[in-house]
Specification:
Elements: H1 36-60, H2 64-81, E1 89-90, H3 96-106, H4 108-127, H5 139-161, H6 170-181, H7 186-201, H8 207-213, H9 218-233, H10 258-288, H11 301-317, E2 324-325, H12 327-335, H13 342-357, H14 359-362, H15 367-380, H16 384-392, H17 396-408, H18 411-429, E3 434-440, E4 443-449, H19 457-464, E5 472-478, H20 484-499, E6 503-507, H21 519-523, H22 525-532, H23 568-573, H24 610-640, E7 646-651, H25 658-662, E8 669-674, H26 690-701, E9 706-712, H27 716-722, H28 732-737, H29 741-748, E10 756-757, H30 765-783, H31 785-792, E11 797-804, E12 809-814, E13 821-824, H32 827-830
Parallel strand pairs: 4-5, 5-6, 7-8, 7-9, 9-11, 10-13
Antiparallel strand pairs: 1-2, 3-4, 11-12, 12-13
Helix pairs in contact: 1-2, 1-3, 1-9, 1-12, 1-13, 1-15, 2-11, 2-13, 3-4, 4-10, 4-11, 5-6, 5-15, 5-17, 5-18, 7-9, 7-15, 10-11, 10-12, 10-20, 17-18, 19-20, 29-30
Length: 832
């Protein structure tokens, strides 16, 4: 339902489009424009980046202006030249340990020179187009490296938060921590605790007030609040000191051992490049979850390396910290609705303005508050989700060795140890992996034979990217193992490819057999093909068919029992399974559990016939196969109560399966079904207030955010309205169908714009009435008091859908206030 476009309430201004949806803009002279969503996103990112840039500079021991320089250069240079349009670059916590070590050993000017040299190496790597090779690094190594850096940052900043001075390494910091605890500065501790408390509690503010307040970044609120408290209380704490820009130190010539400088350049290049590329991939993932078409191009990783290299050259030359893509700011940029690289560049402009005009305010910030902020970031870098993931993929050893190596020895040494262990683990698992791509009949096939580990990711990535955008693809996996890196690569490509209009089918070991199909179809491909093509024949018996839960719905047809009166040829061939009893009733088919045998007597007034047996067998299959998988989720819903976000009002027609066409599950939809998907207008004497009661309960009690009216093709109620049955009110059906007469009047009203399907006219009068009925029932909905209040408060949206049963195609109502048009919902619109 996330792809639905609200049918606007009366009086609301519809969204204006400069060109029809899903079509290119009209040609004309291009003018530089900044979208409103880019402007708001840039402000959000700026408010996050400003305190973090100062805090990271403090943690490295660099001049605090260096953090602002890196943030501005990252926004302007990397934002303009990089290959990921929505990625936000700047100083990152992942580089804190590396930069602090460089400053301690070589000084600030040489550190800036190392940053410039690292940028040159990145330019060379981008020119060689080897960016995707960086994805061959196991995620366990990357996450282990970040976890080790996070622990190092947190332990070091703890000393500043307590009012002391950090040491050069984690072991040294832990050794002097007891002495530091005996010399606490209460004022520094209070400011640090206040900062951490705000960071922890700010995202948890409940209610509507919390929704509004959370639009302001928690980091900004924490630092600003601690600064205000320290100033009002008159606490004498060390504060931010920003010397005049005229005395700002720029890069100098490298000075130190050649081998040490080479190692420093390689370490900086490694961390900057890997973190930037991973952040760009994460940005593509977030973009794929946006509802509707994705207007932003997928990241060009080689160009991103070039942009990061140019940014590091400029930042190092101007005396700034190393620059890399920052996942936190990038995620904030995407979620804030940015649509182009203008948001990133505007954030850089805002940082420049702040660095020039807000120095007096910035110098009021206590260093203890910044230290607490950076310490919180370090703690979050040790992700329990990542630990569970690498454990599930049997890479916990690689993660642990990398983390401990970074903590005890350093970043480069820890990564080297992690790579060595990962290679050893991979060699232990690895057999030959062959990956090939071929096209047959317009369908692109990617065949993978052997085990998929991170060493095969570059070849897998290249093969997958040979599939053109929007094409149909089949990925055939013939292996027993897939590690985390390969799994993420395949999953990310599948989500991105389907989001851009393509289709992906992942098959198992036997060509042409889907992994999710029942065992009987997988064991007998010819039989499976017959089932898929609707070949005639009896359904498999209960002894040779076991449908697995969560398989496609069509596969469960093998649960059908045999017919009551089979054809003569079949009856003779199956005398052992179907023998009419003397009283004319049919016994239970072979394979029926004893507990169900009593329901097979067709003539028993208390027992259902063969239809009842089919229903009970379906319930039995649910208890056997599906209930164990959903029991935990249903138990949670039973404890917490239902919290649906959608009220879905549709027809009682058996062909309309709401959970199937909306891809929803337990707790997602509050469903109301009746004959004709009718909503009686308020005040009409219908003798049945069930629909109005359901609407009131959904809006006022459950607080649903949207209501959808869904009609469908071939609706019997609409046929009755068009025929003679519409004139008779003596039956319950006739009295109920009176509520559909306004729809009939709307269809016959020549002054009202007719509802129509995009791209074609309605097939007949029944389809025209079905479409008009959806529009009319939305009008009735708006007249209900609870709905009107929610619409006016902006808490509710109304949607109209039309499901064509024969096409298995959903159409979405747009422009209900002008000319009601039902647009075809495409796969790209529903991809999440």
């Amino acid at each position: 339902m996330s792809a639905c476009v609200p049918a606007h309430a009366r009086g609301s201004k519809p969204t204006e489009r400069t060109h029809p949806p899903h079509s290119p803009p009209p040609p004309g002279r291009r003018r530089f424009r900044i979208a409103g969503s880019d402007l708001s996103a840039s402000i959000t990112v700026f408010l996050i980046a400003l305190p973090l840039s100062l805090g990271i500079a403090l943690a490295t021991g660099a001049p605090l202006q260096a953090g602002l320089v890196a943030a501005a250069v990252g926004g302007l240079v990397a934002g303009r030249l990089g290959g990921s349009p929505l990625q936000v670059s700047g100083p990152a916590a992942g580089l804190t340990v590396v930069t602090a070590d460089l400053i301690q050993h070589y000084g600030w000017r040489t550190t800036c020179a190392v940053t410039v040299l690292a940028g040159l190496v990145q330019l060379a790597l981008g020119s060689l187009r080897v960016a995707r090779t960086a994805l061959a690094v196991s995620p366990a190594i990357v996450h282990g490296m970040l976890a080790g850096i996070g622990v190092t940052i947190a332990v070091a900043q703890l000393h500043i938060a307590l009012g002391g001075t950090p040491q050069s390494s984690v072991p040294d910091n832990l050794r002097v921590l007891p002495a530091q605890l005996t010399q606490l500065r209460p004022d520094a501790v209070s400011v640090s605790v206040l900062t951490l408390a705000v960071l922890l509690l700010w995202p948890r503010i409940p209610g509507r007030a919390g929704d509004r307040l959370r639009k302001v970044p928690g980091a900004l609120v924490a630092v600003a609040g601690a600064t205000a408290v320290a100033a009002l209380a008159g606490l004498a704490l060390p504060q931010v000191h920003l010397p005049s820009w005229s005395s700002h130190a720029l890069a100098g010539l490298p000075d130190g051992p050649v081998l040490g400088l080479i190692a420093a350049v390689l370490t900086t290049t490694l961390v900057c490049s890997v973190e930037s590329l991973l952040s760009a991939v994460a940005a593509d993932k977030l973009l794929a979850t946006r509802p509707g078409p994705v207007p932003v191009k997928r990241s060009d990783l080689d160009r991103e390396l070039l942009g990061q290299g140019a940014a590091n050259i400029v930042s190092g030359s101007l005396g700034g910290l190393p620059v890399t893509g920052v996942a936190v700011r990038t995620a904030a940029n995407v979620r804030a609705g940015a649509v182009s690289r203008n948001s990133t560049m505007l954030h850089g402009v805002l940082v420049v303005i702040a660095a020039l005009l807000m120095v007096p305010l910035l110098e009021l910030i206590p260093l203890a508050s910044l230290a607490a902020l950076v310490m919180a970031i370090g703690i979050r870098m040790v992700s329990l989700h990542h630990i569970r993931t690498v454990t599930r993929h049997r890479e916990a050893l690689v993660y642990a060795v990398t983390t401990l190596g970074v903590i005890c020895l350093g970043v480069l040494e820890g990564v080297a140890l992690g790579i060595a262990v990962a290679v050893g683990v991979a060699l232990h698992r690895l057999t030959r992996t062959r990956i090939r791509h071929e096209e047959e009949g317009g369908v692109h096939h990617v065949h993978v034979r052997g085990q998929l580990t991170f060493l095969a990711v570059p070849r897998l990535s290249r093969a997958l990217h040979l599939v053109p955008q929007g094409a149909d693809a089949v990925v055939a996996l013939d292996g027993s193992f897939m590690d985390h890196a390969a799994f993420e690569t395949l999953q990310d490509w599948q989500q991105t490819h389907t989001a851009r209009g393509g289709t992906v089918r992942i098959t198992g070991r036997r060509p042409g057999v889907r992994i999710a199909e029942p065992a009987v179809l997988a064991a007998d491909p010819a039989r499976g093909a017959a089932a898929r093509n609707g070949a005639a024949g009896r359904a498999p018996s209960g002894t040779d068919c076991r449908c697995r839960p969560w398989t496609p719905w069509r596969n469960h047809q093998c649960e059908r029992p045999p017919a009551v009166n089979p054809p003569p040829d079949e009856r003779s061939a199956s005398d052992d399974k179907f023998t009419p009893a003397a009283d004319g009733t049919a016994p239970a088919p072979a394979g029926t559990p004893p507990a169900l045998a009593h329901v097979s007597g067709a003539g028993d007034a208390t027992s259902p016939g063969i239809g009842g047996l089919q229903l009970v067998r379906g319930i039995s299959a649910f208890q056997r196969n599906t209930a164990p998988l959903v029991r935990e989720e249903l138990a949670r819903l039973a404890r917490e109560g239902q919290r649906p976000t959608q009220l879905f009002l549709t027809c009682a027609d058996s062909r309309l399966v709401t959970s199937m066409i909306t891809s929803s599950g337990p707790g997602d939809l509050f469903v109301v079904r009746n004959v004709g998907n009718l909503v009686p207008a308020p005040g009409e004497e219908s003798g049945d207030d069930s629909v109005a009661a359901a609407i009131e309960y959904a809006v006022d009690v459950l607080a649903v955010r949207s209501i959808t009216v869904c009609g469908h093709s071939g609706c019997g109620a609409m046929q009755a309205l068009l025929g003679s049955a519409a004139s008779g009110d003596g039956t319950p059906l006739g009295r109920w169908l009176r509520h559909g007469r306004p729809s009939l009047e709307r269809m016959d009203d020549a002054s009202a714009p007719p509802a129509r399907l995009a791209g074609r006219a309605a097939a007949d009068a029944v389809e025209r009435l079905c479409l008009a009925n959806v529009v009319q029932q939305l009008e009735h909905l708006r007249a209900h008091e609870s709905v009107a209040r929610a619409l006016e408060a902006g808490r509710l949206e109304l949607h109209g859908l039309y499901f064509h049963v024969g096409e298995a195609q959903t159409y979405l109502l747009t422009g209900a206030d002008r000319e009601p048009v039902f647009e075809r919902v495409r796969e790209v619109d529903l991809a999440v």
